[in-house]
Amino acid sequence: MAKASGGRLLAERYQLTDRRRAGAVEARDLRSGAPVLLEAVPLPELVTPFDQAAGPGPDDARQLALRHATTAAGAVPDHPRLGQSFQVFAEDGYLWVAGEWLAGVPLAQLLERGPMSPYRAAEVAYDVSAGLEAVHRAGLVHGNLTPATVTVCEDGAALLGGLAVAAAQEALCGGPGAVDAGASVPTSLWSPARVRARDARAVIVGAAAERWAPEQLGVIGGAGQPVGPAADTWALGVLLYRSVTGVSPYPESDVDDLFDAVRAGFRPDTRPTGPLRPLLDRLLDQDPARRPGLAQVRAVLRQLLHRAPEPLDREAQLDALPPGVASAVELPTGTRLPVPRPGALPAQRSRASREMVERAGPVHPHHHAAPRRRNALLGPFLVGAIILVVLVTLVLAATLKG
Fold first, then answer.
1. Are the beta carbons of 83 and 151 closer than 8 angstroms?
2. pLDDT for 328-345, tens place per residue?
3. How many structural domains compose the chain?
4. For residue 372, is it left (φ>0), alpha (ψ between -120 and 50) or beta?
5. Are 48 and 172 within 8 A, CB to CB?
6. Do the domain assignments include residue 289?
7. Do the beta carbons of residue 349 and residue 91 sit within 8 Å?
8. Span 202-241, pLDDT tens digits
9. Which of 94, 137, 265, 360 qualifies as a cystine partner to 105, CB 3.0-4.6 A?
């Protein structure tokens, strides 16, 4: 992450502050006056070609990463479970993604205070899976679902970010599949070139278990599996396990140890996961073809939450996505101004989840749309007017008779 001093200006519009959040830095958009979050991806000074003897130079690699991140940011329609991205640009050796400032706390920060109950973890996973579905419908793989890219808002709802950053990182890895703009991960079968690209990815991504499904590791000399949406369901399984236990299901102290454990089919401890265990077994299956689709995952989570011992408003929470989706204002330059997210996210969350966010530190409220005023006097006024008209009519009739 680039070192940002307060007051520094990027892209002639984003004034940085000294406040940081899960690897991002907060800034103020001078065009709209709105707060934004800026994520940074280091751009290499030297790019080693992974799949050809004479590959692209550093400038070409930077342009490829910029194109991938821009394509990914614009490919997914605004969605109530996805953080918005407004602009992608390169400056000072970094690729920057300007995104929505969300009133909430990163899931990583919440988990530092201890694990969640299985039911609260299921709430977060349900929200995240809705965001992943929107990404998959756009023909992309997210590839960057981690506790740092999930924000738990002050009303308990969870939103997913990090899509454009992942697209840039995957582009910088090189290898087969990286030439397809907007592709988050290589889709070709395993080859020596893809093995080298995987090794480059290990340097960029590190030992984050969510980002290393078995098909993203491959078997040297074997046919392997293409990487698709099932890699995101694997990540959801790792995130669920981490949420209810406080630790990763696989060792993360070293990339090689993580790879060995995933390849060996290591099965995490069964005791702490409670009612989520059957779903976790399916999500963490070695074979991507055997993992459940997101629709199945959401059905299981819905049933689990309906059986939760905590009294929750399940219908308001689960039955439908809210209709109020944030919009964007197009600028002549093709960039977008941040638009406040309307207050349509479900507010009926567990008391425990709201307290957990409050304990994590002060958060600012959502940018709620102004509530519509209810004219409480309108009904009585109409009734009174009707009575008055009737009385006047009766008086006139009596006068004419007299």
1. yes
2. 333 333 344 454 454 433
3. 1
4. beta
5. no
6. yes
7. no
8. 988 899 999 999 988 875 444 567 788 999 999 999 999 9
9. 360
